[in-house]
Amino acid sequence: TMKRKRDIGVDLTSLPVNFQEKESKRAIVTLLTWIQTEKSEELRFIYFCNSQTQIQIRKFCRKESITICINELHGSHSIRPILLSKNDFYRIGQKNSILNEFPVDYIYSPLGDTKLFKLGTPIISVIEDLLHKEHPDSLAPEEVKYRDKQAESIVSKSKYIQTSSNYTKKRLLHDYSLSE
What we know:
It is built from six helices and seven strands, in the order βαβαββαββααβα.
């Protein structure tokens, strides 16, 4: 029997237009490209993106992958829907209902917190560091509060959390009273 493909929704709505210049963001794209190559028979990717990065995402994803622009960045010029391929969609302002139109088995949020949510759909989030816990004095007090609130939101929503290192994993388990 052939396994059914799993649909993985990837939240890249906050990916900056200059993501190629940022090492951590390039690493995310490298990982996603590798997964698509290695797991092509098992997974289909649905990329939720913004108006400035949809074309860039299309360049690294497979033909059968889907891109959906759901977020228009301030000051950006969106792609006209007429210019998109048959697997690219333009759904500005439909963030709350998009998972009904494009249901997924998992939501992967490599950029941290996600606003995409559907009851019963597991979320896999990434926490790169806990700088606000390790070195709070290196950040402005507002940034420490913001980062702590973000980490708490990720921890409360996510079924799985991916970390960038074992050290970050241990800190996360300790600081947010999680079990492995």
